[in-house]
Amino acid sequence: MNDLLIEQNDGLLSLTLNRPEQMNAMSGEMVQGATVAVMDVVENKSARAILLTGSGRGFCAGADLSGGGLTNARETIEGRMMAGINRLILAIREVPVPVVVALNGAAAGAGCGLALSGDMIIAGQSGKLLTAFARIGAVLDGGMSWSLTNKLGPARAMGMAMLADQAIDAQTAKDWGLVWDVVEDDALMDEAMKLARRLATGPTVALGLIKRQIALAQTGSMADTLRFEAACQGQAFKTDDFPEGVAAFQEKRKANFEGR
User: Fold this and answer.
1) Residue 208 domain boundaries
2) Same domain for 162 and 193?
3) HSE of 64 in the Cβ direction (CA atoms, 13 Å)?
């Protein structure tokens, strides 16, 4: 069985973590396959949006702790992270198309970091986020020290990280601004697919620039942000989608964006 299911259709790349018996705990094949798929979007513009989810009853349990693999990797974990999960998180953050996460069940440890790397998260009612690391004497990874601090502020980030046995349920995650929406579990994939397909037919270049704007705004000054907004608007106005969007607005019809 493939650890990662990849499907591409009408501009939408769907990635499904596929180790349901292990709650989709990360394998090397899974991480490498997802990284290659996302990087292909960067290099070849092979998709206009990405949908990421997990199979079975959970999104991702994080690193696979079975078999003593991690305890045997104490001298090599830094390099393994840089070559593995860190490459995937950066690829998702930097890919110039929207990434929608369908949070089915628990996202724990590095799986929580993976979920939070997406641009928009839709959670099922059973969805929950758990940092988990402090429970085993480890620290945040998967970009969570950045994502939790920037999304929640240091107080809540510290609480989630240190009280690692306390999961954040889907509704709390929405109230805290970590997820975009919460829906019934049996409607999750339909709603996530609907959102992802809407983004995949949107003004792709502009959406990718918006993604970069929001990333910069979390660390840059107002002056930096204003300069970057002007530069991005200069790029957006030069796309074919911009005059189509203006014409559609004036003619009171749906725009036919082609992503260029």
Assistant:
1) 204-250
2) yes
3) 17
Q: Are 61 and 24 in contact (CB under 8 A)?
A: yes
Whether the per-residue pLDDT at 1 is higher than 80: the answer is no
Is residue 260 domain-resident?
no
Residue 215 to residue 75: CA distance in whole angstroms? 33
Same domain, 162 and 241: no
Q: Exposure of 156 by Cβ count < 10 A (0-12 exposed, 13-18 middle, 19+ buried)?
A: middle
Please check whether residue 258 lies inside any domain of the structure: no
Say if residue 189 is in the same domain as residue 211. Answer: no
The pTM for the full model equals: 0.93
pLDDT tens digit sequence for 127-156: 999 998 998 899 999 999 999 999 999 999
Alpha helices (runs of H) in 163-221, residue ranges in sequence order: 170-175, 188-200, 204-217
